[in-house]
Structures are given as C-alpha cells and as structure tokens.
Amino acid sequence: MRKLTTSLCAAGLMAMFTTAPAVADNHADQIALGKAVYMGKSRGNCISCHAIDDPDANLAGNQGPPTVAMKTRYPDKRKLRAQIWDATKNNPLTIMPPLGKHWILSEEEIDAVVEYIYQF
Amino acid sequence: MKIIKTFALGLTVAAASQMTFAADSGFDLKTVDPEADRIALQNYFKARFPESEISDYVNGIYAVDAGSREQWEELEEFPPYEFDVEKGEELFNTPFANGKGYADCFENGGIGIRHKFPYWSKEEGTVKTLEQEINECREDNGEKPLKWGKGEIAQVSAYMAWTSRDKVFDVQIPADDKRALAAYLDGKKFFYAKRGQLNLSCANCHVQGTNIRIRADLPSPQLGHVSHFPVFRSKWGALGTLHRRYSGCHKDSRSKPLKPQTETFRNLEYFQTYMSNGLIANGPGARK
Predict the structure, then answer these.
(1) Is the pLDDT of residue B13 over 90?
(2) CATH architecture group of domain B82-162
(3) A2, A59, A98 ranked by CB distance to B199: nearest
(4) What is the ipTM of this complex?
(5) Which residues of B touch A49 (CB under 8 A)?
C-alpha cells in the first residue's frame, strides 16, 4: 500500500514535471511532499506530537517539542534526518516512532519532511 | 498494507534498566516486587500531578485534566450507561434454559464481587477475569458464550460492577504459587514493551505521555485504569469491555492486538488491577 501510494504520488509528480515548463521547481514539490508527510495521519503524522507555525496546522499535539528554529538548532541537516529516521538512537524510551527504521516513511519522504521543517 | 501494519517488528524489550521509569522493581522473577511497583507508580503520579488526589485516579484523565473534567461531570449527570445497567440486571436475572442463572455461578449470588476480579486461580493455574467467568457460567449451563467486546457481556458485567461500587480493589498474588508472580511479571513486561510499527509501549502513552496531547487525544494515567470498566465511551456510542479497549490501543499504535481473554491480556489486566489496589471499583464509567 505504502509502495502503491508512493508510486501513485511519484506518477503524479512526474505528470507535473512533464506538463510544467522546463524550469519545474523541484524544491517546491519536495516541500509540498514534506508538508503532506508532516500533516498526514497515515504518513508521518508529526503534527500529532509537534506544533508548527504553519497556518494549515490545527490541533497539533505536544508530546514532543515544537518545530521551531530548526536551522539554528540543527546546523548539520544530517543530524536532523537521523533523529527522524530513528529517534530511539538518542532515547530508547522515546514515544517518537522510528519513521525510517520501521519503514513508516520512504527515504524520499524523510528527505522531504526534513526540507519542509528546515524552513521553520 | 496488511503486511506492513501487522509486520511483527519484534518486541524491543529494552534493557530492564532503561524501563524503570515508574516501575521500581525489576523485570525478572528474582527482582520483581509488585508492591514496590505499585508504590512507585503512585509516587510518580503524585510528583507529576501534585494537585490530584490518589483516590481520584479512578476517574481516568479527568483526575488530572481540569479542562475536560467539567464536560465529563455534565455527562455523568445523566449517565449514558444507565440503560445498560438496567438491561444487565434484566439479563442477569433471566434464567437459562436449564432454570439456573448467573447468580448460581458466583460467590454471594454475583452481587458486590466485581472488585475481586481478576484473581489468581491455583486450581486452574491461570488468571481469571469476570468476563471469562460470565461466559464459563453460560457454557457450564448449556448456553452459548457471548462475544467478548460489547453488547450483552458488557451489560451483565456493568450490572455486576454497579452492585460493587465503592468496594476496594485488593488483588492478591499468592506467595505459595510462583506461577502467580510469573503472571504478574508477564503483564508488567507487556505493559512496558515497545511494539508495532510505531514502536510504542502502553507506558509510552499512559505513564510518560499522560495528559500530554497526541493530536487532540489525552492519554489517561495508568493508575486507576481498570477501576471503572466496562466503560461507556461517547466515541463508541456504547459500552465496551476492558479487552476491547486493549484492542483499540493496539490499533492506534499500529500493532496487531491479541484476542480478548487470551492469557497475556488476562495477565495484563492482573498487572494493571494490582497497580490500582487500594482504589475503589466505580464501574461502569463514562468517557469521551
């Protein structure tokens, strides 16, 4: 199912690339995917635990710290990605799911959500 | 989808030393100490929510979250489970085809005994729950067993709980039968073990995560968890048993629930109820 949605999604993106002018904004697409991952209940569902200052975020939970000042706090993007890929590395008892390690998100989705939150 | 959702990722039972939050004793038969666990849990919540009385934990999340308490108090003014208690009483008093009834299967005619469940049965070498004995009573008298999660079984259980209100839980772990402590330990391990695709333990939400929002949901404290079952949940629009709730929490954390009344779920109930020793039975309850 996950593969299916990812490939449907990829197909959708491809369709966009082919119809858009040659200067398709790759980054904007990635940010849009990252946002969908952040908000989607059946995807990352980050919003269930992390508040974020995005006008489309409502009823965010607060199990985890709010998503703020990412760039300042994570000058090394790889550290941020590692936290999302497997939060149990830093804290084995954390409530945060290991989104990469347990195949909850694909690698592209993790890259995308990193890009999305890096703006906040 | 199915494969991923039910994907058995294996229970990552972290090293015991890492699981000790709010559980003061160990995770093996040599070091486990139920009474130390129970006191540690109370102290943990006392420190986290100094305003809340221990005796109030029978009211679940409403013991610690003032915000939703008012709504709940209004709900309790016209208790949504009232009809179910009446229906349960009627079912309880309707004789089986052989002329016998539930009253013949239980101590004291089944009245005022809810707080004595679950208990360790030496004869059978297993934990016995109230719902289990309701169905055994039926089968012993030639009736079909009821479905475990909701409906008539919850109604009979609700009536029995109603007649036991304010009685104090005092679950025993008999020292002369080592298997009883092993059952407690099994339940305790289950509670603290991470499982499922989201890698969550019961403790993640009901100890660490108590009264902290997961989206719009507020997980209740594990202390007092079982006192008010069966429960009428507005979300279900109906009464449900404890093991139905266990299944629901598994699904929320994307792990495959065990079947209701399996040994491990009964051991989990044994552990959870022991944690609530000293609190009163106040079922049936109402929750959002």
Answers:
(1) no
(2) Orthogonal Bundle (1.10)
(3) A98
(4) 0.85
(5) 214-215
